[in-house]
Amino acid sequence: MDRELEIKVLNINIEEIEEKLKAKGAEFLGVEIQKNYTFAPKNAKEFSNGYLRIREKTVDDKREATELTFKEVVDNKDNIRVNNEYTTTINSTSNMIKILEEIGLVERYVGDKKRISYNYRGQRFDIDIWSKDVYPDPYMEIEFTNVNLMEEILDEFEIDRKNVTNESINELIEKRK
Question: Which residue range(s) make up the domain with 92?
């Protein structure tokens, strides 16, 4: 299990954010191309405490292992989201989808995402660009190793707090409907 502390920054200008990261000496981690399959119980929009996804990804043109992850929301206050992530590698997306359907889960959406990643001061910055049919606006996700760094980093990058959210991608998608 991994624990993550994360926020999303909405209404970003991709070029401007990348310029700031580079100017501050952030380490470029690479570009991922992902296909995400998200599942929910049959008669619900999502699990009460998180969500389940299959992720296929390519990093810098190299295919990576496909993963099944349950993201459990542990805490969601003070503008930061705390998740426990339970992840395992799977060999077949189609077989896993069949298993999930057989136990009563349904595919909520399938989306392609481009993720541009940087590391700055030990914190991970991911610029996420989803396929327009899933979520049309790019945003930046920041994963913190320490919640006490959040305000300092937001100030350093001059990020307007009205653009900061602790909502999941599922919650953002629902708000747009």
Answer: 2-176
Domain count within the chain:
1
At 13-52, the pLDDT tens digits run 999 999 999 999 999 999 999 999 999 888 776 777 888 9
pLDDT in tens, 129-168: 999 999 999 999 999 998 889 999 999 999 999 999 999 9
**Using CB atoms within 10 A of its CB, is residue 4 exposed (0-12), middle (13-18) or buried (19+)?**
middle
Question: Closest Cα to residue 51, out of 92, 101, 125, 106?
Answer: 106
Burial class (CB in 10 A: 0-12, 13-18, 19+), 129: middle
Query: How far is 4 from 73, CA to CA, in rounded Å?
Result: 10
Taking phi over 0 as left and psi of -120 to 50 as alpha, with beta for the rest, 167 belongs to beta
Q: Kindly give, in sequence order, each residue whose CB lies less than 8 Å from that of residue 69, ignoring residues fewer than 6 positions away.
A: 52, 53, 54, 55, 85, 86, 87
Is the full-model pTM beyond 0.90? yes
Separation in Å, CA 11 to CA 24, 82, 160: 21, 22, 10
The number of beta carbons lying within 10 Å of the beta carbon of residue 132 is: 10
**Domain harbouring 33, CATH code:** 2.40.320.10
User: Beta-carbon neighbour count of residue 118 at 10 Å?
Assistant: 22
